[in-house]
């Protein structure tokens, strides 16, 4: 699975600590989708500072490379499987996949080397993520695709009689160990997938498309509008509309979150609210790391994009189209800025650099609660992010 520089930068802050393929859209990450589709293991060709955690494995005979921003479908899989050595599959000038035995290929020279390959055009429709908002924008279709793959030939666990189901039972799938009681589930608007050992607490109301991944939970009386994905080990409550939580992040209390993407190890404090629609109903501009400025999205609905390990205190208010970097710690009244760089501490009244060692302390404590250790490799990656975002931090 390979990254391209432009797309990686356009997806920041979500790709600061992971290759593109490890972003979640639908039920699965993009990597998990491809590994299932091709019945194969994968490695990553990505930024050098990520390579220690995500090493690149090269097959000297013939390696298949797939763009980490592209989601699989039947036609695309067939086209990729038909590729011969030194052939590249493209669509609209974008490299989708290629095969090669050229050992000298690396992250920096990939596009230059592939430019000389024989081009094979792919003309059918596909799903791809170019910007962070594509993740929630395409989440409904991605959930539907993953639902078909993950449930094919399998039998769902029964739905407890304490619940109310609206719609087709075949569009609800419950994995082993999951618990759902005294809730309302609506599959008329899309499928609902409940992962292993996941829990929907009493009084929750869910409209599909919806995915509650393994070991994740909905708190009591949660109100969930699809298309929404709650990733593994996340705990979510309040009102949520068309959002994607990657994994290990929490929004445990009341408050609204809409048209948003939350990465891993984030926490939204009680009554944190996010605007996803401007008061004048205009199109939303969002910070773009590659261009280092706010850019037009052409979208009317856009909430929060939050990088890994970021935190928001109680009653935090995020404006429409806010981007929060890695290990930012936001609190206080009124709206903070719409772009908050990584390792920033503060809110609307002042923003200062969050001392790197303090940021690590917070990350370690949250991860320890899930019995996961922050390794030296993780620390080195976070240090690289701290240094990359330094140019955007201005203490005031």
Primary descriptors:
396 residues; alpha/beta; UDP N-Acetylglucosamine Acyltransferase, domain 1; 13-stranded parallel beta sheet; five-stranded parallel beta sheet; 18% helix; 25% strand
General description of the model:
The protein has two domains: 5-121, no CATH class; 154-392, UDP N-Acetylglucosamine Acyltransferase, domain 1 (3 Solenoid). With 396 residues, the chain is α/β, with parallel strands linked by helices. A hairpin with a 4-residue loop joins β30 (344-346) and β31 (351-353). The two termini are 41 Å apart. The mean pLDDT is 96. The chain has helices at residues 5-10, 30-38, 74-81, 110-114, 133-137, 139-151, 356-368, 376-388, and strands spanning 63-66, 87-91, 94-100, 118-121, 164-166, 172-174, 179-180, 184-186, 192-194, 199-200, 205-207, 210-212, 217-218, 223-225, 228-230, 235-236, 239-245, 250-251, 256-262, 267-268, 273-274, 285-288, 293-296, 304-306, 311-312, 317-318, 322-324, 329-330, 339-340, 344-346, 351-353. The longest helix is centred in the middle third of the chain and has 13 residues, at 139-151. The strands form six sheets. Strands 5, 6, 8, 9, 11, 12, 14, 15, 17, 19, 24, 27 and 29 form a 13-stranded parallel sheet that branches. The radius of gyration is 21 Å and the shape is globular.
**What's the helical proportion of residues?**
10-25%
- Give the quaternary arrangement of the chains: single chain
Shape: globular
CATH topology of the largest domain: UDP N-Acetylglucosamine Acyltransferase, domain 1
Mean pLDDT level: 96
Task: Return the structural class.
Answer: alpha/beta
Query: Which CATH first-tier class of the largest domain would you pick?
Result: Mainly Beta
CATH superfamily of the largest domain: Hexapeptide repeat proteins
In the predicted model, the low-confidence regions spanning at least 5 consecutive residues are none
Number of strands: 31
How is the biggest beta sheet arranged? 13 strands, parallel
